[in-house]
Amino acid sequence: MADQPLKYRRLLRILKRFNAYEDRRRGKGSERMLCRMVNGRLERYPIRCHNENEEKPRAVVKAVRRRFCLTREDGVPDGEFYA
After folding, report:
1. Rg of the chain's alpha carbons, rounded to an integer?
2. Is 70 exceeded by the pLDDT of residue 74?
3. What backbone torsions phi and psi does residue 63 show, to the nearest 5 degrees?
4. Residue 1: pLDDT band with limits 50, 70, 90
5. Averaged pLDDT of the chain
């Protein structure tokens, strides 16, 4: 199973299992800030989102997984990520 488009709400639920969260104090307007501790460092990734039902394209999901070290190369297979 390769990376697939996800609704923002589902992406947040998946990331929450890996101790990532949305920092509501950061970001402006329609921009949301996702955060996760990676190797002792707080990594952030901004995402444009107008509502939580909006579908995020495959490229965004892939970029979030890379930034937060949640790829197959980092030990998180696709099946475990999307489960």
Report:
1. 12
2. yes
3. -65, -40
4. low
5. 93
Q: What residues are paired with 23 via a beta bridge?
A: 33
- Which has the closest alpha carbon to 8: 47, 43, 36, 35? 47
Whether the CB-CB separation of 65 and 3 falls below 8 Å is answered with yes
Task: Convert the pLDDT of each residue in 22-45 to its tens digit.
Answer: 998 887 788 999 999 999 999 999
Angle at 23 between CA 27 and CA 30, to 5 degrees: 35
Q: Which two tokens stand for residue 35?
A: 């955060």
DSSP letter string, 27-38: --TTEEEEEEEE
| Tokens describing residue 44 | 């952030």
Under DSSP, is residue 34 helix (H, G, I), strand (E, B) or coil?
strand
